[in-house]
Amino acid sequence: METKINKLCPEDIKWKFISSLGFVDCHHARYIDADFGLEMETITKKKNDYEFGNCKTYFFITGQKKEYTDLQILCDDWNEINNYERKIIKSK
């Protein structure tokens, strides 16, 4: 029997585009990774009708209220929440 630790790294996340909304003063886009239960939202302010400003990105763990702006910190918290040992039985 082999024991494996569940560990998530930023490069493991595969974001899937879900929705986009355009407002008068900003643009909002939403992405998820259903395999890990993660969400990402980007909010981009508009400078004018033809030009966008800086984008702010927020990350969430599905079902948690905490908001993250650093992907590595999100992964660290995800690992703490989901750090369990899985027993893997190798077939002979």
Terminal-residue CA separation? 11 Å
SSE order: EEEEEEHE
Structural class: mainly beta
Structural domain count = 1
The biggest sheet, with number of strands, parallel, antiparallel or mixed sense and barrel status, is: 5 strands, antiparallel
User: Uncertain regions: pLDDT < 50 for 5+ in a row?
Assistant: 86-92
Number of helices: 1
**What portion of residues is helical?**
10-25%
Characterize the overall form. elongated
Strand percent estimate: over 45%
Strand order, sheet with most strands: 2-3-4-5-6
Strand tally, please? Answer: 7
Computed Rg:
18 Å
Mean pLDDT over the full residue set:
87
Outline the structure in words.
The chain has 1 helix and 7 strands, in the order E-E-E-E-E-E-H-E. It has one helix at 71-82; strands at residues 2-5, 16-22, 26-33, 38-46, 52-61, 67-68, 85-88. With 92 residues, it is mostly beta strands. The chain has one domain. It is elongated. Helix content is 13%, strand content 48%. Strand 3 and strand 4 form a beta hairpin. It starts with a strand and ends with a strand. The strands form 2 sheets. The protein has a 5-stranded antiparallel β-sheet. Strands 1-7 form a two-stranded antiparallel ribbon.
Task: Give the topology, please.
Blueprint: E1 2-5, E2 16-22, E3 26-33, E4 38-46, E5 52-61, E6 67-68, H1 71-82, E7 85-88
Antiparallel strand pairs: 1-7, 2-3, 3-4, 4-5, 5-6
